[in-house]
Every structure is written in structure tokens, then in C-alpha cells.
Amino acid sequence: MGGGGGGGGRREAIERELKKLRAEREDLDGRIRLLESQLEATPAGVSGAAAGIGVEDGACGGSVACQSRVSNGFKLDGGLPADMVYRYSRHLLLPDFGVEGQRKLSQSSILVVGAGGLGSPVALYLAACGVGCLGIVDGDDVELNNLHRQIIHKEAYVGQSKVKSAADACREINSSIKVVEHHHTLKPCNALEVVRKYDIVVDATDNLPTRYMISDCCVLLSKPLVSGAALGLEGQLTVYHHNGSPCYRCLFPSPPPVAACQRCSDSGVLGVVPGVIGCLQALEAIKIATGVGEPLCGRMLLFDALSARVRIVKIRGSSPDCTHCGKNSVFTEQDFQKFDYENFTQSPMSDKAAPSVNLLPESARITCRDYKKLVDNGEPHLLLDVRPAHHFQIASISPSLNIPLSMLEEKLSTLETSLKETGEASTLVVLCRRGNDSQRAVKLLHEKGFASAKDIIGGLQAWGQDVDPHFPVY
Amino acid sequence: MHLTLEFGGGLELLLENSTKVHKVEITTSKDGQGKVTTPKEGQDKVTMKSLLSWVKDNLIKERPEMFVKGDSVRPGVLVLVNDCDWELCGGLDAELEEKDVVVFISTLHGG
In the Enzyme Commission scheme, what number(s) does this protein have (chain A) (predicted)? Predict the structure, then answer.
């Protein structure tokens, strides 16, 4: 820190000179802009580069095309034509963002993995804000039960591809950006090829194995990863593998037990919660793309909707010993393509069905069609529904007794009383949503001496499919 | 020692009434880990390790394997001491102080 004196004087001289030159440059830039706007004003509506509408995979034209194109009307010299100035004027007015921020945004390419609850606001905001190239990858179709939270999709698109729906919505908002549709699930065999084309990746997926896969892929290709998650009334957000922040494996070297992996399709989610997290993901992606502000690196945002609290915590940095991003990592692209993420996490690469269990001998199980016959024949039985009480309130088969699985053991006497009322010889039939908990219940009931207990294979889901098509599915 | 313990990301489901925030008074001694006693001066310090064992014995009502594994938390749980990853402040050996806030949060995967 010494060496002041003469060095300091010289430094000051240089700084003065720099200041003078910068002022001159600003003056020149101003004159250039004025002349340009005069030129632009003549043939109205002719903006720089035409909007690119990439429709299929690869239409983006590889990494070079996706990353270095001069887009959104920015001309080669970096100036903005009048219509773009007007469109993005509120960005340009931000002193920290300005033309430079908008220019960087227009030259960036961002991949959104998942067009669901998180991906909806991410894609909408990134399209609206004028990102150069927006890629959307998802293999699912729009379902009616998505619409309460996946706000990018409209009723008219139910049954159609989510990526098509999302891309159409983005183009409606901003026709000047390039939107690339990737109509497939991201998998180890295609992830490298897709991710390579983009500068920044946004993880807006809904399952554990995909989260490990995207992190590994971003580590291999050195891409920043904006990761968000939401479930129930809580959300989490962080930026992995950027500016010293950890990768997913630094934080979670081993996957959690399967029972700890709750899904939105099982546990529910309040629509606006992924919306909040998705908006923040879009914000982080914009900050990284433009270099404006401090991204959420080495920190994690925890959102609790119920108590209206946001907590930002400091998390560990990237671990030098990490098996994947550490300096001694031997994990290669070939290893990645062969890695079995579903086996590693013991959970499927989708939010859909819980893996079905098989705990009982065939003699202790009946199909819902057989159960229907039993009812029609008037055979004495008691139908025990072991779903949680709030599930039972959604819809149930009448008459049935609801004792949630978690309370079954302590409420065996209630069950016994009810069984006596239906008659000594009656069968105890156990039902749940999908036919997993009913098996667990029957197993417990057998142990407790209820030898007649049987479970309905496939639960209410099968009942709705095979017996009563009017039964509400959820 | 007075501590505020918070559970989130689904871990609260393992506790009575699924309560997320617990203000607790805890001390441990070498021979009687996990016992709730009146705090005395000069007693052994409370470490994260002893806190985990206390939480398991006193707060967790069901499926303890969803909270602990061995003498640490199960994979997928982040532990934060005063809003800082416990890996940065000593992990299991981290010593707690009066009025510390310890957060246990299960990582979410949904979206």
C-alpha cells in the first residue's frame, strides 16, 4: 500500500486525462445517436435485425449463432433503434442498467428447463425484457390441473405441448426475440447438446434426479445455474456454479431418502409460490446476463409464504473436494451421458406418479372391479379410506370410514366398533389415492389381527379409470 | 441456554402440530446428553451434535430417520446457525451461544 508520492501524482494525471477522454467520447456518442435517430426516423418500422423465430431443436443454429448474434434491433455499433428505445425505455432509464445492460441482455441466451410453475414467470419475464435467445425445454403437455400456477399456459392449450404453449405466449409478448423450442425431456443423452448452446441455465424443474443432472451438466459446460424450487407454501432459490458458489453436489453430496422427496402432485403447492420464486429466478438470470448487481451466489433465499418471511442465508462455497466441480474431479461428458440419475436418487425424472409399492400377497388384494361386484352383490364389508382427512374431503366413496394411515394404529378400536356394526363375517376393504398407503395399512392391520383386510389395487385413481368415470380425479 | 429452532421444507411435519418455530431452553452435560435440565453456570457448552440429539429426543414425534442419519442430519437437510451454513461454522462441533437461531430446512425439489 506504500509507493504514494510521485506515483500518486502520475496516477492523478492519468485519471484526469481519462476523465477528459470519457467526456469527449460521451459527447461523440451523443452526436452519433442524434444522427442515427434522424436516419431511423425516415423509413418507419425498419428495425435492425429481423426477429428470429426458431421453432425446432437446433433452429438456434448452434452455440455461436445463439450467443454472438446481434439481436433485438441492436445494430453492429451497439446503438438502439427508436422502436427498441421506446420498448425498453424503462430499462434504459435505470442508471445501473441503461443501454449497456439492455445490449448485454439482447446478446445473451438463456435456457429455461421446465415450463411449469417456476418456468412460467421465468419465460414470460425473460421474453418481455428482451433477452436475445430464449430456449424452453419440457417434454410434457399442458394439463388442466397445471393452470392454477403455470400461468404461461391458457385453457386453449390443454393437451398440447407445454413448450409450444410457452413459446407462443413469449412470442405474443415480444416478437423481436428468438424463442427456441425443445420438445423433449432433458436427459443425460441430450442435455449437453442443448445446454451448450446457451449462456445461462434456469432450473425450473420439479424433481430431484433432474436437479442433479442439470447441475452436473452446468459444471461440465461451465454455465451459471439459477436454481429455484417450490412446494406447498415454501420456496427456495440460489445460483449454483457461478462466482465461487457451490454446485448442487457441493451442497448435497448424497441424495435424500425417497420418503423425504415430496412432489407437488402429492403434497400440493399454492400457485403463487412458484410464481414468486420464478420471478426471482428471472431476476437472477437478468443480473447474471447483464453483470448488473450481485447475483445470489453463495447465498440461498428461503421463502415462507405462510408467515410472509424471506430469509437469505449464507451457504458454503464450492468445495475443492467436490466429486464433480472440485479441482480433482474426473467426471467427464462421457460419464455424464451414462450416469443413471434415477437410480442414484431412487426417484423418477418426473413429478407424476409415486413409484408404486408391492407389499402384499395377491390374496390380500382386490381390483376395483371386484370391489364393485362385492358391493353390487351386497356382501357385508367395511370400506376403510386411509387418506389424510383433507384428501377425504375432496371426494370419497360413500359409505366409507376415514382413518388416515398416520392415525390408524391409535384408532384401531374405532375400526373394531365399525366392523362389528357391519357384521361378524364382513370383509375389511382398504382404500387410498393410488394404492400404496392402502397396502401399508393392510400390512399393519394383518399384524394387529384384522386378518380379512384387503387393499384395493390402484386406489381411487383406478376406481375413476375402471369403474366410475365421474369420480373426481385429483 | 435459550435457543430458537426453526424447521422448514417439510421437516416441520415431523414435529408436534407441525409447528415451525420452537423457542427452547436446553442444556446438556457429558453424562446425560439430551436431558432437559435447568441451566447452570459453567456447564458444558451446547454443540450442534448435542443439539441434534436433543431435538431428536425432545421434538421429533415421528420417523426420526427423516431428520437424522448417524449422528448428523440426513442428506438433503441444510442446517443454518444464525443464517449461516453450519459447514462454515464447524458443523457438528459448532458451539452454540445464548439466543442463537438454528434452522433445519429440507431442500425442496418441486416446481
Answer: 2.7.7.80, 2.8.1.11
